[in-house]
Amino acid sequence: MSTKKPNLRELYSEAAIAGAVGRLAAAINADYAGRPVHLIGVLKGAFLFMADLVRGLDLECSVDFVRLSSYGAATTSSGVVQERLARQDPVRGRHVIVVDEIVDSGLTLAALLRDLEAERPATLRVCTLVDKVGGRKVPVPVDYRGFTLDDGFLVGYGLDLDERYRNLPAIWLAGPPA
Ligand code: IMP
Ligand code: MG
After folding, report:
1. 128, 159, 168, 171: which to mutate for ligand 1, most atoms within 8 A of CB?
2. Which residues are catalytic?
3. Ligand 1: residues whose CB is within 6 Å?
4. How many C-alpha atoms does 58 have within 13 Å on its Cβ side?
5. Is the pTM of this model over 0.85?
6. Distance between CA 123 and CA 144 in Å, rounded?
7. pLDDT value at residue 80
8. b/e string for 139-174 if b means 16 or more Cβ within 10 A?
9. Cα–Cα distance, 113 to 145 (Å, whole number)
């Protein structure tokens, strides 16, 4: 992969991300003290956020992953939830936290939350690093958010543009194509 970053400008630095992840972990530690939590990460984008978040948790914690859909080559949501890869572990009676790196339209998360609710977890919450509030098409209850953004397409720290840039340690705002 090229290391050049055309039309990208840094929005959240590595340090800012670490600070936000630390605050989210601290809030979860306080809210769930003494209770085991079951985290469900939304692939692919949440893989780095999940890895950092769990290391800040001072709780008994289990981890699962689900893959719901992907943007493919487009930079706006198709609104279609597809290409689902199933979760492994039952959620019934557990304290479930869905971990996503960004919530935009909310469509993928709303679909996942509906499925999870039907399986009767003890509690169900959502933790996202970035809440892109301007893109919301369906309401989604976001319980823990690191950053709030109105609009813009982000890459880095798990977020991709056509599968590129997921490995960048900071989060960058992608400008219009040159
Ligand atoms: P939503 O269903 O529109 O809320 O978005 C679902 C998924 O689209 C997110 O979990 C991300 O994987 C991806 N996504 C949304 N906004 C961005 C972005 O700005 N950059 C990269 N991926 C994004
Ligand atoms: Mg995602």
Report:
1. 159
2. 104
3. 42, 45, 71, 77, 100, 102-109, 132, 153-154, 159-160
4. 8
5. yes
6. 14
7. 52
8. ebebbbbbbebeeebbbbbbbbbeeebbebebbbbb
9. 17
